[in-house]
Each structure stands twice: as C-alpha cells, then as structure tokens.
Amino acid sequence: SILAGLLPYFPAGCSTKQLLHFGFGFENPNTFRQYDYGVAKNLLKYKSVTPPEYPLEKVTVPVAIYHGTNDFLVDPKDIALLENKLKNIVRVSICNASLNHFDFNYGSNIRMEAYNDALKLMEGY
C-alpha cells in the first residue's frame, strides 16, 4: 500500500530545530523570521532580542507558487503574505482544492495538477 511505502521515510529529512522553527511561526503569525534562540543567544547572534525577518523582498529569482487549499501545514494567509513580500512571482496556481501538503510529493495526480505546468514554466527560463 502507499502508506506502507511512505512510513519508513516520513517524517524524514527534518531536524528537531526545523520543527521548532516551524512552531515559532504559530507564535508570531505574519512574520517569517530566522531561528529564535531565546533572548540571550539572539542578542549575541543577531544583536537583537528577537530574530530578524528574512528579507524576502530581496529575492530576485522567478518564483512560482503551487498550492492546494486543503493544506493543513500552510495557511492561505501565509501564502498571501509570501505573495506580498516576494517581488518576482511569475505564477500563483491553486491546484485541485482538495490537495494537501503531502500530495505534492505523493499524490497520484500531481504530475497533471502541477508538475507538467512547472516544467513548462521552467523551460521558458
């Protein structure tokens, strides 16, 4: 089954620090900040009690955003925030509304939903 094939590898490729960093986003909505080490270490590392925001407005590469509205890990408000900060978005595509976060890796129809379009878009560059 698909689930049996997935379980040996999920959740893989993710550190505890990444999970904690992801969790900090819930504490500080509407921000995309560097890792929060706590006040003392932040002062040493960032010269500030809070970590700085990533300067997304400085990203110059073309960016395409593909998402589904059934994603329990990415809130549509976060996508809107990203859209407002990135200056070189070439496409925002809401794929099949039922897609969730893991469908982009494991969905049986994802080639038709997003990959073919993304490949065609990249060929233009």
Question: What does it look like?
Answer:
With 125 residues, the chain is mainly alpha-helical. It has 6 helices and 2 strands. The chain has helices at residues 2-6, 16-27, 39-46, 76-85, 103-106, 110-123; strands at residues 63-67, 89-94. The chain has a two-stranded parallel ribbon with strand order 1-2. It is globular, with a radius of gyration of 17 Å. 3% of the residues are buried. The mean pLDDT is 86.
Short structural description:
The protein is mainly alpha-helical and 125 residues long. Helices cover 42% and strands 9% of the residues.
Secondary structure layout:
Layout: H1 2-6, H2 16-27, H3 39-46, E1 63-67, H4 76-85, E2 89-94, H5 103-106, H6 110-123
Elements, N to C (H/E): HHHEHEHH
Terminal-residue CA separation = 38 Å
Write down the overall mean pLDDT: 86
Helix/sheet category: mainly alpha
Number of structural units classed as domains = 2
The proportion of residues in beta strands is: 5-15%
Largest sheet: 2 strands, parallel
Keywords:
single chain; two-stranded parallel ribbon; 125 residues; mainly alpha
